[in-house]
Amino acid sequence: MIVVNGLRKRFGSHTALDGMTFNVEPGQVTGFVGPNGAGKSTTMRVILGLDAPDAGTALVGGRPYRSLSRPLCHLGSLLDAGALQPGRTARNHLLWIAHSQGLPARRVDEVLERAGLQAVARRAAGGFSLGMRQRLGIAAALLGDPPALMLDEPFNGMDPEGIVWMRQHLRGLAAEGRAVLVSSHLMSELQDTADHVVVAGRGRVIADTSIAALLQAAAAGRVTVRLGAPFVDVAAGVLATAGATAVRTDEGTLTVTGLPAEAVVSALTGGGVPFAEISTHRATLEEAYLELTRDAVEFRATAGPQVTR
Amino acid sequence: MRGFARLVHAEWTKFRTVRGWTVGLVAAAAVIVALGLFPGMEGTCGTRGTGSECVLPVGPEGQEVSDTFTFVHRPLTGDGTITVRVAAMTGARPDFSGTGGEREGVVPWAKAGLIVKDGTRRGSTYAAVMLTGGHGVRLQHDYVHDRAGSAATAGVPRWLRLTRAGDRVTALESADGTSWTGIGTVRLTGLPATAEVGLFVTSPQFSEATGAASASGGPSRATAEFDQLTTGGAWQPGGWTVDTIGDPGGTGGPGGPGGPGGPDPGGQSGGGGERGPADGRPNGAEQTESGFTVTGSGDIAPAVAGAAGLGTTISQTLIGTFAGLVLVVVIGAMVMTGEYRRGLIRTSLAAAPRRLTALAAKASVLGAVTFVTGLAAAAVVVTFGPDILRGNGIYVHPASAATQLRVIVGTGALLAVAAVLALAFGVLLRRGTVAVTLAIVATVLPYLLSMTVLPVAAGAWLLRVTPAAAFAVQQSTLRYPQVDGVYTPANGFFPLEPWAGFAVLLAWAAAGLAFAGYRFHRKDV
Question: B186-225 pLDDT, tens per residue?
Fold first, then answer.
């Protein structure tokens, strides 16, 4: 639906995009995560034709966004919920956008209802809370009933109730078969929402994977063994002999990699080492994300201004 | 094209749903109307009872004219010729150096010569050949037509001859009375068989601009010595009659405002006595051994508005345009910079990624709403303003329907194109205060400066090159080279022709919009 291929963009000496490449597929929520400055917003602006890339292409339904005559019927977007004329009512804000796409006023009332804004439709948008502005932004993105949606940090500044609403809404949109791209700098916001995740760092894609695969990769066969302190060294020796790597991570705890849990059990049993508990390690999404982006963050922290290649 | 129509619809919705914009437009129209309908000027025309009305004679071609001169004449039925030598020409003009008196000197458009005229009624058809104070020999007819002869000076004797043949009048001149040079032939279609023919002298209101908004003026006077007067053809028997046409003190007819002796309805010109300069030779003629010595004051010419002439014009009723323009350029700049300030420009361009089309739609809507605003306000002012001024005793030069239409449409177009120029500044500068300041400095400030404090030449220069040149569309009366007037913006006269001045603004706006479009198309937002 959205195809981003080899985007490069520099602002002065700062490289914002360095070969950003990924696809957004229909029927699922794709999370677009990465630390601040990873190039997420720049990528979205390039997709919308707001920024011109130095190299690479971004296509929506196979065409550059700037060539679409009714673009909001192809891709709905929400970049900045605060981008409103304060004196204009919510309904009129949606009305001019609808008119720009040749859509009837009836669509405005439909999306107002879908976003739960009927009650405040005729109030000036300048008085809206951030959560209401986000809803208004979602309503605007849905005006053209587009097959693809793109939202930049939609959870920012939302209260817990709003976050729940937004999550449900995004899942519902994906369930309707739409491609949904949602950026966030907090992986935890995307837990239980995204099906797929594109992790960005330093202007390029670090990982492009399903959430399930990401979790699995992060856990990567790590097994935790708890046993009496006197047996730790013996157990480590037995497991090393069996071909695993065992690291003592705590008093009476070994973290084992290289062997599945059943093999660990049989090796310890065969070696006559008593153990209290064996568990496979469960990585959180946040851990997996931090693992992936550590390099990018460290690079920035130590050598930020050097990026001039 | 359908895409453009959709964007125009969207931009219109955008515009009308922000109260500030609509209120601003209504305020712009209101200030133009208010300053047009509630003027501070008062005059005396028609406010002092019967006889105080200001009525100008109207020439054969419909223009209002001045027709005040000293006339020594005899009737001529059918064809005939008259020849005379202007032996000497002297004059006096007001002195503005502070003494309040007058000084010697013939003013450039003082006239002495021969005239063929349909009776003594003011405004009737005529043809005249004359020696002028500073413009050589001229052949003039029916007030607005002027043809140059030789560049003879007023101090040197000059022979002049007029010949009537049917409805044609031919003028000749000579330096020695024997060798004659033709100046031209004019046709007076309305000239009856019997015309009044003879000598005339007149000398126009003298005035000079002393600043952008101030002028000094007063009546001048000329005296010519005519001799070697000969006639040939079907002259009726009898002597010469002397009339001071248009002079309230003379025998030529009822008083009127056409000459220097008339009332001062505009309240603008200085001086103005009952019958010309207070001292010296009175207007009239006396027969000498060899001819006549004739003294006259006034003019035979189209009437011009302003300090040198009389009253005001519909241009001055639109004085509030500059205030409306301030509001309109503020709106023009802010509809763009407001979007940049709030990031709304990204929403706009996400909805309309073809940026040049988007900019064209925005400019079209802005241009249309400001055009209608200016058009409506100017229509109200031009329709009702002159009547209110007349009610206050101000003489207002009438303008033809075509001129009124041009002033009204031009005022709307002035606001519209200036707003689009401000929009271009908004695109280029992106910051409201900067764009608004620049737009006001470009469009309103040059006009205000040339109307008030600048020397006339500097003001004229500004009104040729800056976008404020478009105020020329509001000029409603003509300037005539054969009439010395105070042709300043404050008197309703602009240095460029109406549509030429508008073209200057149009060029600025086109260049600004093209540059803005180029940058808008390429730059990231």
Answer: 999 999 999 999 999 999 988 777 766 667 778 899 999 9
What do you get for the CA distance between the two ends of chain B, in Å? 25
Both tokens of B282, joined, read 């009175």
**Angle made by CA atoms B441, B446, B451, in degrees to the nearest 5:** 140
User: Which B residues 313-342 touch A at CB under 8 Å?
Assistant: 338, 342
| Mean of pLDDT values over A253-266 | 84
pLDDT at A220 (0 to 100):
64
Q: How many CB pairs under 8 A join A and B?
A: 89
Report the residue of chain A nearest B14, measured CA to CA.
A96
- What span, in angstroms and rounded, lies between the C-alpha atoms of B41 and B20? 33
Indicate the pLDDT class of residue B308, thresholds 50, 70 and 90: low
- Pick A77's closest partner by Cβ from B11, B342, B350: B350
Tell me what percent of chain A is helix, strand and coil, each rounded to the nearest 5.
Answer: 40, 25, 30
Cα Rg, chain A, nearest whole Å:
24
Whether A255 and A249 have beta carbons less than 8 Å apart is answered as: yes
Q: What percent of chain A has pLDDT over 90?
A: 56
Q: Does A50 touch chain B (CB under 8 A)?
A: yes
Asked if residues A205 and A39 have their Cβ atoms less than 8 Å apart, the reply is: no
Report the distance separating Cα A165 and Cα A149, nearest Å: 17
In this prediction, residues B229-247 reach a mean pLDDT of 87
Q: Which residues of A touch B22 (CB under 8 A)?
A: none
Please provide residue B476's backbone torsions phi and psi, each rounded to the nearest 5 degrees: -120, -10
Q: What residues of B are in contact with residue A150 (Cβ under 8 Å)?
A: none
Please name the residue of chain A whose CA is at the shortest distance from the CA of residue B347. A83
With an 8 Å Cβ cutoff, are B19 and A87 in contact?
Answer: yes
Tens of pLDDT, residues B29-74: 999 999 988 766 777 777 776 667 777 889 998 888 999 999 999 9
